[in-house]
Recover the amino acids of this structure.
């Protein structure tokens, strides 16, 4: 079932007066899609999800699940009437029940009760999905965090909802378990073909799991797209920074461009990059390059060639096994880069950083200010 | 969210939905508001009406004129205040001393003392007073006879006394000893949780045990002690049993007995006047409680009790240990053993006589036989059980639902509900009963025909204990993670289903603790059942008082012994439950 959110607004009264948590937010999740709301804490992503669940009510706007409007002016469907399943950050497994009772609850207590004869099969089916069928009769307090999260998932899925809502479900787990469950959840939702909306502040999770990501900030969506889009073609410096590490070079567009390729003059040197349309010579621009696109080398080699090269001095080098993560002082800026020349890089060495024009993303300087308006 | 959200800016719409979809919740809350407000409003209205509530004679200010022109009213007010203040001072000194001795020193038998100090809770106030009436009545009081014998050996001959319990001093003594358990329980936790490094710092600064106690320990604990003192003062202001059993025969009135006298004893009865007393009494208590709440809020800011699990240091008090134990033994004799033994003794005699060998020869179980041969006794036992079970169940369910709305529901005006639930706490039991009498004697509640029924009695106790229940449920619900309830909503359960399948089971320990607390109090309740009693709704405590009033002290004593026997296990059960709850919260 598709989910449509339109013009959602909400404000909270705080000690400093009203604060807008949501600012005319809108998006469209296609049937069967895994859609992620990604952003720092306080960006409104959880509020959005809770509005879809019906646990909070927006001040304005509209939410549709499939053909049905569940929230809008003069329309309000209570959470227990919405075709949703939800997994909470704290799991919210009821401690006074067994695993089985927890999962059975939606089938017993909702308005469209499932017949007793059918119930057991449904519960066991859901528990099998999350590989918890062995522990069906264990009391909830005797579960580990990972097991609780699986039960929570089974409980959210047992009533065969049209939409699955996940509110930072992995953030309370340790790193290894997190990685494991990340793939499990992704695999499960794909197999079931269920529309999923996932909220997280962890960009790795978002990139790994999503069909599409919406990066949120200040109660609005800054950019929406596939994980590749978001990572490789961020449209604002905030997005670029939030979904991974990035180096910025401030400069102005130099005259002349061919086949979309142009030159930006920066304090670190002239950088060749793909210029977006509408970037006139003289305009202020920001060049974003990810550290993994910057190759550090101690030899100058053939110079820049077709690509770009800047020169600096290593300030810090951290050995990561297969590579070295280094901070390089280039003029006034500190640039992060990676290299596989594990032996040669050390603090104080002079290095040359090479990167291709294709790895540069040119952003109009001041785009951030425009987006935040 | 990084922001501290105080309240949704436009929070009323969803809340309206919560209520619209839960007609039952709305109805119950409405009843609750009515239950509290109708009697209070009725009491105020009737203070302006002449004549019997059922046959009013029209509006008047005469009641106020009479009341405020009556020396007895001022006398009762002064007696109430002086009884409460001197009695409380006595209580607090004893209780704080015992809390320190039992919790922090090497007094012998400390663990036993910890349990024994709870036993007074199992002795209803009316029995405590009657026991002491038997012990210290000027002529035949068992203890007076004993004292006279002792004085006789020294050549001092007396025909009565030396102590007369029927005096203000007697009342103060009873009130002071009576309150010790409650105050002990309120301060003992603070003694346990207090950071011992405060005391250790004093000791290394060369302060002795006594100096440390007075200069460091007491001041550090003063917020807890102050809270217990004020609480004890307020309870003493409401005391009724001892003033009735001891004060009335000596013509000593306090506000509560003045109301009882005006509506149940004097001829002709004057409800209008009683209503004025009730309103004044209620206002006085409201001011005291507001003062108490404000002081509590301030004292929390200076709290030295951090709640960390410290291992308190045991202080050695040397040979004073035995003096301390002696003091405790004396207290326990006075608070429990003596009154209980005299009741037991009396219950085994055909009629009360001071203890002697001759009297011992007449010992018999005839009183117990007679009690169970009294026609009404099984009805009375049945009524008592019904009252206990129904009142505690209704109180706790209403408290649970009200607390849920106060803590959870996004409803405007829940702060108001919170305050409303606090109101009954400010109304003395006797005034609750008076207000209910008036409410059920006048329209619209008159048409229910419930006046004088068990139902009114249940209502009276529900009103009396709902504040306690709500406070307990408030903190219990706050401990339950919101997401546990929200998970039920998104699982398709409505509000009521969530309340009874998720929230209530989760806070069941607290619910059970509250239930037992109310049951124990209902079983020994006296002022409300006595005020509201009719031949249809008599309970144990009322029957007991009737026996006493009719001069059959032996029967009253027998009934009292049975009541105490029932209360001791219940009290210990309550303690276990409450320990469990507080253990969970830790």
């Amino acid at each position: 079932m598709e989910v449509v959110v339109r013009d959602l607004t909400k404000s909270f009264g705080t000690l400093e007066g009203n604060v807008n948590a949501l600012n005319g937010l809108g998006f469209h999740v296609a049937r069967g899609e895994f859609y992620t709301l990604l952003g720092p804490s306080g960006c409104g992503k959880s509020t959005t999800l809770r509005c879809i669940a019906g646990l909070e009510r927006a001040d304005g706007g509209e939410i549709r699940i499939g053909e049905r409007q569940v929230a809008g002016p003069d329309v309000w469907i209570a959470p227990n009437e919405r075709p949703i399943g939800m997994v909470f950050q704290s799991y919210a497994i009821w401690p006074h029940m067994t695993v089985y009772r927890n999962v059975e609850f939606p089938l017993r207590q909702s308005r469209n009760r499932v017949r007793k004869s059918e119930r057991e099969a449904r519960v066991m089916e859901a528990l099998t999905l999350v590989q918890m069928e062995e522990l069906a009769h264990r009391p909830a307090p005797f579960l580990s965090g990972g097991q609780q999260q699986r039960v929570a998932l089974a409980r959210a899925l047992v009533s065969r909802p049209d939409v699955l809502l996940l509110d930072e479900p992995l953030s309370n787990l340790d790193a290894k378990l997190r990685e494991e469950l990340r793939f499990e959840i992704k695999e499960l939702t794909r197999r079931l073909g269920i529309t999923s909306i996932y909220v997280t502040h962890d960009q790795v999770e978002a990139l790994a799991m999503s069909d599409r990501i919406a990066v949120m900030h200040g109660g609005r969506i800054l950019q929406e797209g596939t994980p590749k889009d978001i990572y490789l073609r961020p449209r604002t410096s905030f997005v670029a920074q939030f979904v991974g590490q990035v180096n910025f070079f401030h400069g102005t567009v130099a005259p002349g461009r061919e086949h979309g390729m142009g030159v930006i003059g920066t304090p670190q040197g002239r950088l060749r990059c793909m210029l977006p349309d509408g970037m006139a010579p003289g305009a202020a621009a920001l060049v974003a390059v990810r550290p993994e696109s910057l190759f550090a080398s101690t030899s100058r080699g053939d110079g820049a060639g077709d690509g770009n090269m800047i020169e600096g001095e290593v300030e810090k080098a951290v050995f990561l096994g297969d590579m070295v993560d280094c901070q390089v002082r280039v003029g006034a800026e500190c640039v992060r880069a990676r290299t596989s020349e594990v032996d040669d890089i050390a603090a104080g060495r002079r290095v040359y950083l090479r990167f291709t024009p294709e790895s540069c993303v040119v952003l109009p300087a001041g785009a951030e200010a425009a987006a935040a308006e | 969210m990084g922001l501290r959200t105080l309240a949704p800016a436009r929070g009323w719409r969803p809340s309206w939905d919560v209520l619209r979809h839960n007609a039952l919740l709305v109805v119950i809350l409405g009843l609750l508001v009515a239950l509290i407000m109708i009697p209070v409003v009725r009491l105020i209205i009737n203070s302006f009406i002449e004549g019997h509530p059922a046959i009013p004679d029209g509006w008047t200010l005469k009641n106020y004129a009479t009341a405020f022109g009556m020396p007895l009213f001022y006398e009762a007010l002064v007696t109430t205040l002086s009884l409460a203040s001197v009695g409380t001072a006595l209580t607090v000194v004893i209780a704080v001393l015992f809390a320190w001795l039992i919790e922090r020193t090497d007094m012998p038998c400390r663990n036993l003392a910890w349990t024994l100090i709870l036993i007074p809770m199992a002795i209803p106030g009316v029995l405590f007073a009657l026991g002491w009436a038997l012990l210290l009545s000027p002529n035949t009081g068992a203890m007076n006879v004993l004292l006279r014998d002792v004085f006789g050996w020294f050549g001092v001959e007396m025909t009565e006394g030396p102590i007369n319990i029927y005096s203000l001093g007697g009342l103060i003594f009873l009130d002071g000893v009576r309150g010790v358990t409650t105050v002990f329980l309120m301060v003992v936790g603070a003694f346990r949780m207090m950071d011992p490094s405060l005391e250790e710092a004093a000791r290394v600064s060369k302060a002795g045990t006594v100096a440390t106690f007075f200069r460091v320990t007491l001041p550090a604990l003063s917020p807890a002690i102050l809270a217990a003192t004020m609480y004890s003062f307020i309870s003493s202001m409401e005391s009724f049993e001892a003033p009735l059993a001891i004060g009335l025969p000596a013509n000593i009135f306090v506000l509560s007995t003045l109301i009882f006298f005006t509506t149940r004893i004097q001829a002709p009865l004057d409800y209008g006047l009683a209503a004025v007393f009730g309103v004044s009494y209620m206002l006085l208590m409201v001011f005291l409680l507001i003062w108490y709440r404000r002081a509590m809020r301030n004292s929390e800011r200076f709290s030295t009790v951090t709640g960390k699990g410290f291992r308190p240091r045991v202080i050695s008090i040397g040979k004073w240990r035995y003096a301390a134990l002696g003091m405790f033994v004396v207290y326990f004799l006075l608070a429990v053993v003596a009154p209980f033994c005299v009741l037991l003794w009396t219950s085994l005699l055909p009629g009360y006589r001071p203890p002697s060998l001759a009297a011992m020869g007449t010992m018999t179980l005839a009183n117990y036989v007679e009690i169970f041969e009294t026609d009404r006794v099984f009805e009375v036992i049945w009524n008592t059980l019904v009252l206990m079970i129904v009142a505690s169940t209704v109180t706790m369910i209403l408290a649970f639902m009200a607390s849920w709305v106060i803590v959870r529901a996004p409803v405007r005006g829940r702060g108001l509900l919170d305050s409303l639930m606090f109101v009954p706490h400010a109304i003395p039991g006797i005034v609750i009963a008076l207000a209910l009498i008036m409410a059920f004697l006048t329209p619209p509640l008159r048409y229910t025909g419930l006046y004088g029924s068990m139902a009114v009695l249940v209502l009276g106790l529900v009103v009396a204990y709902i504040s306690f229940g709500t406070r307990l449920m408030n903190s219990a619900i706050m401990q339950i993670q919101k997401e546990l309830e929200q998970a039920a909503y998104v699982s398709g359960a409505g509000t009521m289903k969530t309340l009874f399948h998720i929230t209530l089971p989760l806070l069941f320990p607290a619910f059970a603790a509250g239930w037992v607390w109310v049951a124990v109090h209902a079983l020994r309740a006296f002022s409300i059942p006595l005020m509201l009693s009719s031949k249809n709704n008599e309970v144990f405590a009322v029957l007991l008082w009737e026996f006493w009033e009719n001069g059959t002290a032996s029967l009253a004593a027998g009934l009292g012994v049975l009541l105490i026997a029932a209360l001791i296990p219940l009290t210990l059960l309550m303690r276990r439950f409450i320990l469990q709850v507080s253990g969970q919260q830790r």
User: Anything to note?
Assistant: Strands of chain B lie at 7-8.
